[in-house]
Amino acid sequence: MSITPEPVMTFPNLDQAESALDWIGLDFTEGDGFFAGELDEDAVELLDAAFGDDDTPQAVRALAAVLREQWRDATAPRTWSVAFES
User: Fold this and answer.
1) How many Å apart are CA 63 and CA 68, to the nearest integer?
2) Where are the alpha helices (DSSP H) in the chain?
3) How much is the pTM?
4) Which position has the higher pLDDT, 5 or 42?
5) Do 8 and 81 meet the contact criterion of CB atoms below 8 Å apart?
6) CB 27 within 8 A of CB 37
């Protein structure tokens, strides 16, 4: 990814951001203070599963909701990023 999109969410630290993405199962790359990835049909299936799971932590569910909405918006970019504070 040559241009990193604006973060859809910011987490307090690297561990919490990475844990949220791992919980969902999204593929991502790490940059300086962020993780980034792309939305596709496989990613959306993972987002739907995480959002619908009663055991999903609230922060993870919130991230899944934001990314699901991004997918549904035909004008939104298919790339995303999640920031974390150092």
Assistant:
1) 9
2) 14-24, 41-52, 58-72
3) 0.92
4) 42
5) yes
6) yes
d(C-alpha 19, C-alpha 78), whole Å: 22
pLDDT band at 5 (very low <50, low <70, confident <90, very high): confident
Tokens at residue 52, please?
Answer: 């619908």
Cβ–Cβ < 8 Å for 42, 84: no
Q: What is the pLDDT of residue 2?
A: 54
Closest CA to 9 of 74, 75, 24: 24
| The pair of three-digit structure tokens given for residue 9, joined into one six-digit string | 């969410």
Phi/psi for 30 (5° steps) reads: -105, 135
Res. 3: pLDDT tops 90: no
R_g over Cα of the chain: 12
> pLDDT tens-digit profile of 44-61?
999 999 999 999 999 999
d(CA 15, CA 68): 22
